[in-house]
Amino acid sequence: MKIAVVGIGKLGQRHLDKWKEVADVEVVGVVARNKDKIQVVAEKYNVQPFTSLEELLNQVDVDVVDVCTPTVTHGEFVKQAAQAKKHVICEKPLALTSNEATEMIQACEENDVQLLVGHTLRFFPEYANAREQVKNGAIGKPGVVRLTRGVPFPTGREWYADEEQSGGLFLDLGSHEFDWLQWTFGDVTRVMAKHVKRDHQDEQLEYGFVTLRMADGTIAYVELSWAETKFQATYELAGDKGMITYDHNATIPVSLNLRSSDQAVQMPKSLMHKDPYQRQFEHFLDCIAGKAEPIVTATDALKAIEIAEAAVQSSETGQPVTLAEGGR
Predict the structure, then answer these.
(1) Are the C-beta atoms of 175 and 304 separated by less than 8 Å?
(2) Do 305 and 93 touch, CB atoms closer than 8 A?
């Protein structure tokens, strides 16, 4: 399978690293507009550099275009690749708005190419296993779930801090949790959110808190932060038979506590070392080859954007937002 990577930032280079670990893959080119930087990256990964996707499509044979650019540019590159009849992998969030995401999905459908979105959380074993436990009834009927995700405020990549380019905290950071929640508990029917911004010693800090009612009655609380000193992520999934907890920074991060048991079942970190990006890419290639159905669809990615939009609307109006059946 011949892959072209668009974007040479942190995610673009992470993708270039991980594609090297996937069997039967050749990266045939990398695209970026900065001529000096693209040359350095191309030499580092021993791939052919291009300053536009059009240039690459005209000069090399490619099967899949992997888009790893700022969110504001996703639509442009996805539509261009689709019109060239190339399958597309796109980093999350799929687009800045649900309207743009819908147009991107339609473009891929009209050109009969697959659009696979990198909601990587579905490929993290600690999140995939927790979903499986919930679906298998390990915690009984789910009641209240709490998820947190926090990172230092983005610096050195100014576009992240610009909501016109990244979509802001709820879309860029929150789409991880929003997607996993709908994958695990079904559609979101109601959203209430608060959003706080502060400038602290020339550093901008942001915090968001979102309450979501799921179609199955589960209540979810999602805490998002661009104000941490290091990466942190946790969850607590409580039901009438027990609870699953996870803390990224704990020595033993995952614990399953059941009412019928006096002892927690814990999962050591050593069981979780297979890289989620490699798992994701291998799955995407199986989908393109017709060997598997997508674990995450473009429609799922669209729903995550709609939830983020509802959170933004609620935080601006101070009122809850009701989503129709299907997350819309």
Answers:
(1) yes
(2) yes
Domain segments of the chain: what residues?
2-119, 121-273+297-322
Identify the DSSP state of 272.
Answer: G
The Cα–Cα gap between 160 and 167 comes to 8
Nearest to 301 by CA among 26, 31, 108: 108
- 193 forms beta bridges with 210
0.90 surpassed by pTM:
yes
Segment holding 169, helix H or strand E: helix 168-172
How would you list the strands of the sheet with 2-6, edge to edge? 49-50, 26-31, 2-6, 64-67, 87-91, 115-118
Cα end-to-end distance, the chain, whole Å: 36
Class of domain 2-119: alpha beta
pLDDT digits 0-9 by tens, 114-159: 999 999 999 999 999 999 999 999 999 999 999 999 998 877 666 6
Does domain 121-273+297-322 correspond to CATH entry 3.30.360.10? yes
**Among positive and negative, which fits the CA dihedral 185, 188, 189, 195?**
positive
